[in-house]
Amino acid sequence: MVDYSPAFMTDMYEYTMLDAALQDGTADRKCVFEVFTRHLPEGRRYGVVAGTGRILDALERFHLDDEDLRFLSDRKIVSRKTIKWLESFHFDGSIKGYREGEMFFPNSPILQVEGTFGQCTLLETLILSVLNYDSAVASAASRMVSAAKDRPCMDMGARRTNEWSAVAASRAAVIGGFQGTANLLAAQLYGLKAIGTAAHCFTLVHDNEEEAFRSQVQALGKDTALLVDTYNIEEAVKTAVKVAGPDLGGVRIDSGDLASLAQRVRNQLDALGASKTRITVTNDLDEYAIAALQTAPVDSYGVGTQLVTGSGAPTCAMVYKLTERENSQGVMEPVAKKSKNKATVPGRKLAYRSYEYYLAETEHIISGSEEKLAAFQPDEDWKDLLVPYVDHGRIDSSRQGHQAIMEAHDYRAQALKELPITAQSLMRGEAVIPTETQVL
Questions:
Q1: ∠ at Cα 264 (204, 283), nearest 5°?
Q2: Cβ–Cβ under 8 Å, residues 250 and 281
């Protein structure tokens, strides 16, 4: 990948604010920032948190080298005093939030960042760009996995988005319930299952379909999946079984009426003795198309465009707002915007979820000063939703890497089961549980 500093994956005004704050003395004021969304995408019942592990990866490299500092200086973006401050920059604040794979709703405090104003403001754009996109993909993936029931979904979206987004999408898709990815860089970086065999061009480059199938089976073995819709599907299935025998691993259908074709192909495979051969379908699938295939004899789904674009909601509209800050007397005090339709709730937050008969009932957001929150006693059945990610600059490495992704994958499935069953409905509706905010 391109060698770059995550500290430059930001908007210019983060640095100009830092520059002004260093000059007026407010850069060292302690602050608490919060990430939340005011609303879910229209009609969605829940969202899935993803991307926090990538933020932690970026934090490890969040510093500026001489070339970066020279750029800021030459462009006169910041003053010499700020350049000096940035030379030794290291985030030594604390971060806590919802774990990856957790469900979120309007006003859920998905992430809380505590540190000095100067440190926290530099993280804003990076945090939002990661959480907004990754959570959008994970949320769409979760809906697709629900529609697929117990049939695996695979990420095939790399060619439908930016090359870096493709890697992020693969990771987020697995958190959202997908089983693997066609993107090799994502598979390498995060230890994900890699999938893929051949495209139509492989068939077309050979003199005939049988030669293409023989070549693929010879190279990849009988357990491979042969693409059967380049010419005539019925003839291709006959040829596939002729070449690989009844132990053929799978066939893939990438066009046409997928439900009826899958049914005909299943019957044909069974008639040819290939009863264990799996059927994979692709072709611009989304959660609705997958749901329409529930009664079809399909064994797995390959999803591309709709996955990496959040199935119509490529962002979660998350924002990063200051909720508490140190005043000129050195006392921490809650702050809030009062803008029309953009008002915020002052103070740092606690977040819980209450249950009735083992099903989530309400999201409880408790806001107040650090002292009041420390004294707050939740009900016995309330689940604490916030986990620590960074403690005074020390990153919890258990939230990074392959194992963290797999744990988030499993956690999402369990968390979804704890929501009312209407969460899995594809019909438009409100958030599946209400959010209640209490200011102490």
A1: 50
A2: no
Measured between its terminal Cα atoms, the distance across the chain in Å is 47
Q: Does residue 325 have a pLDDT over 80?
A: yes
For residues 52 and 67, give the distance between their C-alpha atoms in angstroms, rounded to a whole number.
Answer: 28
Domains of the chain: residue spans and CATH: 6-138+313-439 (3.20.140.10), 197-298 (3.20.20.70)
Give the DSSP H or E segment for 203.
helix 200-205
Question: Which amino acid makes up residue 119?
Answer: Q
In whole angstroms, give the CA distance from residue 48 to residue 311: 14
- Closest alpha carbon to 32 in 131, 118, 119, 115: 115
DSSP 8: G
User: Based on C-alpha coordinates, what's the Rg of the chain?
Assistant: 25
256 phi, psi to nearest 5 deg: 85, -170
Question: What are 370-408's pLDDT values in tens digits?
Answer: 889 999 999 988 999 999 999 999 999 999 999 999 999
Q: Which residues pair with 334 in a beta bridge?
A: 324
Residue with tokens 């140190």: 326
250 Cβ contact partners less than 8 Å away, ≥ 6 residues apart:
223, 224, 225, 226, 277, 278, 279, 280, 299
The CA angle 294-154-291, to the nearest 5 degrees, is 20
Q: For residues 326 and 333, what is the distance between their CA atoms, to the nearest angstrom? A: 6
157-185, pLDDT tens digit by residue? 999 999 999 999 999 999 999 999 999 99
The model's pLDDT over 76-94, given as tens digits with 9 standing for 90+, comes to 999 999 999 999 999 999 9
Report the sign of the C-alpha dihedral through residues 300, 305, 310, 311, in that order.
negative
Q: Is the dihedral of CA 259, 265, 266, 271 positive or negative?
A: positive
Q: Which residues pair with 436 in a beta bridge?
A: 364
